[in-house]
Amino acid sequence: MTAPSTGTCMPTLHRTLRLQWEEAQQAWVLLYPEGMVTLNESAAAILRRCDGSRTLDMLIDELQGAYHIEGIAAEVHAFVKHAFERGWLA
Fold first, then answer.
1. How does it associate, per the subunit comment (predicted)?
2. pLDDT tens string for the chain (90 positions)?
């Protein structure tokens, strides 16, 4: 699986994974058949928006508005690339 090279891709969580709030962990987790990944707040904020309805550029704009920050595109692109490489996104 190759990572997106532009902000026009529409990332979505891989069909074998589930993203959910885990009360015991007090964190968002990514569940997969072999286990679980506990996500930090930034990773969860990105993955929660990877539902196939937004381009990567739209996702970045939404995050910047929601968190009142600018200039996060490089970090979001890096995380999404990592998530594609790990097989979390399709």
1. Monomer. Interacts with PqqE.
2. 455 657 789 999 999 999 999 999 999 999 999 899 999 999 999 999 999 999 999 999 999 999 999 999 999 999 999 999 999 999
